[in-house]
Amino acid sequence: MTVIMDRRSVLLAAGALVVTFGVGRERARAQAAAPQKSVSPDRVEGFLAIDREGKVTVYSGKVDLGTGVCTALTQIVAEELDVPMSQVAIIEGDTALTPDQGTTSGSYSIEKGGMQLRRAAASARLALLRKAATALKVELSSLLVQDGIVRASSGHEIPIGQLVSGDSLAIDVDPNAPEKPVSEYTIVGKPVARLDIPQKVDGRFTYMQDFKLPSMLHGRVIRPSGIGAKLVSYEESSISDIPGIVRVVRIGNFLGVVAQTEWSAVKAAQQLTVTWSKWEGLPDQTQLWDHVRKTRIVHDDILSNVGSSTSAIAATPRKLSATYDFAIHTHGSIGPSCAVASFSEGAVTCWTASQATHNLRKQLAAMLELSDAKVRCVYVEGAGCYGRNGHEDAAADAALLARAVGSPVRVQWMRADEHGWDPKGPPTLLDMHAGIDQGHELVAWESELFIPQGGPTLVELVGAGLAGLKDLSQLSPGGVLNDLAIPYTFPNVKTTAHRLESTPLKPSWIRSPGRLQNTFANESFMDEIAAELHADPLEFRLDHLDDRRGKELLERLATLSNWRARPQPDRSADVVTGHGLAYVKYELVRTYVGAVAEVRINRKTGEIAVQRFYIAHDCGQIINPDGLRNQIEGCIVQTVSRVLKEEVTFDHSMVTSLDWATYPILTFPEVPDVVIDLIDRPNEPPWGGGEPSCAVVPAAISNAIFEATGARVRSVPFTPAKVKPALH
Amino acid sequence: MAATDLNVNGRMESVTVNDPDTPLLYVLRNELGLRGPRFGCGLGQCGACTVLIDGEAARSCVTPLSSVGASKVVTLEGLGSDANRHPLQQAFIDEQAVQCGYCINGMIMQSAALLRRKAKPSDLEIKQELANNLCRCGTHLRIVRAVRRAAGR
Lengths: 728, 153
Known about the structure:
- The complex is a heterodimer.
- In chain A, 29% of the residues lie in helices and 24% in strands.
- Chain A contains 20 helices and 27 strands.
- In chain A, strands 11-12-9-19-16-17-18 form a seven-stranded mixed sheet, sandwiched between helices.
- Chain A is globular, with a radius of gyration of 27 Å.
- Chain B has a five-stranded mixed sheet, sandwiched between helices.
- Chain B starts with a strand and ends with a helix.
- The chains are: A alpha+beta, B alpha+beta.
- Chains A and B meet through helix 6, helix 7 and helix 17 of A and helix 1, helix 3, helix 4, helix 5 and helix 6 of B.
């Protein structure tokens, strides 16, 4: 394993503190301080700078959410430019410095972001080689680059830093610039050690929660007792005994306190006497699925429509139907959201762990009624967020409090703020129907998804909403329609999403949004159909796939997991074990994942223990196999937690699962082994690995429970309270 | 407002806070500038804030400064030395046992307490020791391997 020096520094760049991920601070400071830097994704200098010493600075709009992707992005750039990784530093998600490459989400950081960097680096390499060819008076084809030095077959050499002058990289990204042949790779494809880990284990890493400014004050927010409750009054005298209180800030229903010390802010937020109006607008949780069904459908999205499924089902002698549901989930970051905001001369800079700083900038500008140019958002890595959690909301809170008191303010959400007010994975309900003809063939498949309207756009900022300020948001559950359509070749298929007018708690995207819930229903229902046909679940899938890579993946999964045709399990013992299989082609266009879960069920108690997951994974070209394994393991463990344990609870006013006791997640003794077969295809485009493995987890577990017990569990989470009755 | 002496990472520090019940976590982070212990829940539920107090793992977010007295506090920064990382820290690097890393302080500090009590714990003992330390990224398998490696198993 290559060990890279650990280096990460906080530096002053263009008037703002910037955390770089990479090489020495002096050079990076000089680069970053360049005024009017292009942030165009069409320009090489939007993404890259090279200084006279040949040190490379990468400006990445995609950010590292704790996944290790910055190491992979560094590998891609170092490989393409033929410079050592130690010469490459990354600046992430700074609206003044980095191109808008879209939200860091959807497993796109390498597939899209990394490939933009690769093309920029290839363009830069070509431009520098042309300069070298001219300088050395040799043919371009006689040149090669090694360790940052251009070498000619004549023996002449020039370090790339000496080829760079002021505007060398002020060129368009050239889509035709030749990319380095895969056969020459020495960095991409290697399990390079992550650049950030040494500082993280030594306590030297700068997380968002560690970020400080001079004269910074500490803020805490005080949220309403009910989601729609109004602020009636508060008594400032109730905190008069707490030293160092700077101000209680009220803007409409937004309430916060700013203090000189963090503990004073914490105590004041707890102790302040506040009266909220009564608000009981949430539905009865015990009737949640009935509520979802009764919510007005505003429109339907047809995701696939092949043949004539409705009449085909009607004509079949054997019909299957099943309903699947997936509870409301929170992101569950271990570190609650945090941000720092500072105003100066009518402009605001916000340090944030947002996965979308360019979007946040627009939202903050709208809220503060400033032009976009007066708002700068600078990414600083926080705790893993796994989707759009509360980081953006904390940024809005910090901005509102900083503006009110005229000093930089750090807002750290408390645990209950995070569990209570981060946007949630919405409740997801799926009705499945199938028809089997007289020849024992599945001839028709229909699914109906009930999911809130909206798209993967801007989620309303809590602070803006409470304060009654402008926002650019709309209902935003994320790309939840993906993988409702199926990868199988049935003659009649119709998949429909019923888009609902509303959903009880503000939605956003959790990891593998929609794909997770839809694949749960699809792959469980496939298993139900296979059982009805007395077919082996693996053979049944292979028979209905017209996809070479998909079939190869399933065959490798079968070998990895020692899959055998469905055994006749002993279903009489108190504790039984089963195996369940699930498959996904992510969004039907990219990463393939197959899973076999090995699950133990206590038939007396309904308790489920997931013992092992076998995963076959094909995401094309692998940039960093160990980083990919780390992500896959994380997908499996996190999703096993979701499937076995997790459910947001609420009363008529508010979320009631406000801590880890009321929203338990998987603990060490409960974690399964994960056995992975990575299928590397170096000559194929690289696809994402941070999400797709999540999607196969729920169905694999559900199908294993069926194999072991003969019972179908169709409602996540699979708690003993639900599993036990299903067994009898 | 009174000065309190605190033994942290082998040094006597004088800290001044306006409330003796200030949790140790805030004192370590804000008065002494330490970044190892992290705020995760403030409820003693997740373990991100774990430090050693007289060699025992303690949740600094629910430990009032006034209760520490003359006890010796060790944070992640004081576990090894600048020249030599603690075997656990090196093992977490060797096993690449980090994703976002926010919980890792607690994983290392809790495991350090375990290894003080028992030099060669079994995997089951490691998992039981870490049962109240939460990781959301799903790095558990690597963390267990790292502790096993640090124990020389």
